[in-house]
Amino acid sequence: MTHILFVDDEPMVLDALQRMLRSLRHEWQMDFLSGGAEALDFLEQHPVDVVVADMRMPGMNGAEFLKEVRQRHPQTVRIILSGHADPELILQCIGTTHQFLSKPCDPEVLKRTLRRAALLGNSLPNEAVKKLTARMDRLPTVPVLYTQMIETLQSPDASLDDVALIVQRDPGMTAKMLKLVNSAYFGLSQSITSAVEALSFLGMETVKSLVLSLHVFSQYETAPPGSNFVTEVWTHSLRTAEAARIIVRQEDLPNNQQEEAFVGGLLHDTGKLVLAYNCATNYGKACRLATTENISQLEAERQVFACTHADVGGYLLGLWGLPAPVVESLTFHHAPAMSLNERFSTLTAVHVANALAHEADKSPGSRASAPLDDEYLTKLGLADRVNFWREALHQLRAPHR
Ligand SMILES: [Fe+2]
Ligand SMILES: [Fe+2]
Question: Which of 221, 224, 247, 356 has the fewest CB atoms inside 10 Å of its own CB, making it the most exposed?
């Protein structure tokens, strides 16, 4: 049974939460405590799946409390509850908090957020990988884009459009911006799935303080296997993103769906970055195993980690509260038939775009590493669209005469 801990110094708030969630007491084990120190003692004895903490508490505030939780119990999902008067504080805890909820809390939003967090807990069977992944507060940024970003923000006449041009090409920066704007804290009625929209919502000053003072983006100090690793994943991700957007455009679907597919493509291999940075030795082992045993990269990852980069990426960005269709496109990009969705979706576009990007990549084994799921495409009635999409991409990539 999922165990959830609520921490708030106001007894009235705890009472209200208890009443609001009463109907779920058979589904979840819930405890309610009044302070950070008390809650940390409790956690030593009772590991919980999710903590929901108030931001303003005397003694230890919510951000300090969750920082401790991240350190001591990294696999616990960390959610902060905060009033709308605290935007500065919210920005400060973007690293230690998985999700943000606004106060007073809409019961349906709270239940939906907790349900999603509870389900995620079961999606990764490897506890060690789960701990390392849940502890991640940022994704590595492509070095050249990171430098460009700092220079742009320091320049007095930089515009939000200049910043957007950089963010939308970098998986790490895009994921972080979407995490922030999609939090329930901002109370938006619709998910934001494009980096450009996220930036215009936050505004230049907030972006500046996030990047220059709070350092929400950074390059990693430890090198993953193969010095070009980030660049390789990035190049492939960008190709997949562009292809996914074109596929959705070919289906005459609106702009927001094209942008969602672009983001899904850009982020689809996030799990590779997570595994390579946190478990460099084992990730190198999986890559070698795929070659020596002549098995797929996915099978090799399963043998070494008992999960794949698709599971890991979906888990992390699910924890960060990214829109469900984007998370689904990460989790199932190699096995779209596992999704319950039986219509053309962002997942379909990302699955096909990934396969076509591998097809166009001439390096050995690339094509075989991400085959198209013909059965899935036939079931959706899309099997004969693949050649059309392939041709559209081909035309786009052909040098202009
Ligand atoms: Fe992949
Ligand atoms: Fe891929």
Answer: 221
